[in-house]
Description:
By secondary structure, the chain is of the alpha/beta class. Helix content is 45%, strand content 14%. It has a single domain (8-274), classed as Rossmann fold (3-Layer(aba) Sandwich). The chain has 10 helices and 7 strands. Nicotinamide-adenine-dinucleotide binds next to helix 1 and helix 6.
Amino acid sequence: MAELQDKVAIVTGAASGIGQATARRFAEEGARVVLADIEDEMGRQLAHDLGAEASYVHADVASEAEVEAMVAHAVATFGGLDVIYNNAGFSGVTGGIEEIPADGWAHTMDVLLKGVYFGMKHAAKAMKARGGGAIVSTASIAGITTGISAPHVYNVAKAGVIHMTKSVAVELGPHGIRVNCVCPGFIATPIFARSLGMPSQMAQGTVETIRPLFDDLQPIRRAGRPEDIAEAVLWLASEKAGFVTGHALVVDGGVTAGTKWEPSSERARMLKEAMGAED
Ligand SMILES: NC(=O)c1ccc[n+]([C@@H]2O[C@H](COP(=O)([O-])OP(=O)(O)OC[C@H]3O[C@@H](n4cnc5c(N)ncnc54)[C@H](O)[C@@H]3O)[C@@H](O)[C@H]2O)c1
C-alpha cells in the first residue's frame, strides 16, 4: 500500500525546491496535499500539475493568521490533517555581527523559526482532533555546525528548529503526534540564486548551473537533490517511522561526517615539505 494513502498533508514552501519535490512525493504516495507558499503563480501551477488531490493556499509562514488559515483550509478541503511539513525558508539577513540590522534579525527569525512554531502550534490542534499525526520541519546542517559558512541568523534559527523539534516531541508524543526534522546538506535548489536577489521564477533556471559546484563538497561525490530530502521526509511522515520522534535526520552526503585527508593534495605536499620529508 502507498505510504500516505488517504492522509492529508500540508507542505509549506511547496512552490520550489525541496518543498516541491516533497509535495510531489507525498502525492505519489496517495496523500491529499495542501501546497502553501508566497509564490502564488508557481504554487498554483504545481497544484494544477498534481490534480484534484492537491490544493494551493497562499500562506506567509511568518504570519500566524495565514498559518492558522492554511491549517483551516486543509481541514475544510480534505477533512482533517495528518502530516505537516514546515519547510518554507530563505537564506535571510547576511553580514558580520556588527552589521546585522535588528529588523533583519527579526524578519529572518520570523520566517525560519517562528514560522515553524506557528506550523507546529496550529497543526497540533488539528492533529489532536484526529487522534495523532506527524510533524516534520526543515532544519539544516547549519543548525549543527557553523563550518559551512551560512549566515549567523540562519545558523541560529536552524539550531532553534532542531531544539524545538525535540522539545515539542516530548509534549506531543503522548497524543500520538511524532515531531521530527531533517537537516539537509548542500542541495541544488533555487535558494542560492534567490539569496542573491534573483526573482523566484528566474532562479528556477539556475539549478543546473550550481549542481556541479556542489559535486565535491561531500564524501558522496554529487550535489544533493531535492528528491534526497523528499525521501527522508516521506519516511519520517509515514508509519514506517512510527517509533521515531524528537529526531534530527541528517541527509548531507557526509558533509558533517568530515573531510578525508587526501595524501596527494597540495596541503599534504606542503605539510611534507614543511616537515622536511622527501617526496
Ligand atoms: N538547498 C539547500 O542546500 C538547503 C540546505 C539546508 C536547508 N535548506 C532549507 O530547505 C528549505 C527549502 O529550501 P529550498 O532549498 O528548497 O529553497 P527554495 O528557494 O527552492 O524553496 C523555498 C520555498 O519557500 C518559499 N518561502 C520563502 N519564504 C516564505 C514564507 N515567508 N512563507 C511561505 N513560503 C516561503 C519560497 O517562495 C520557496 O518556494 C528551507 O527552509 C531552507 O532553509 C536548504
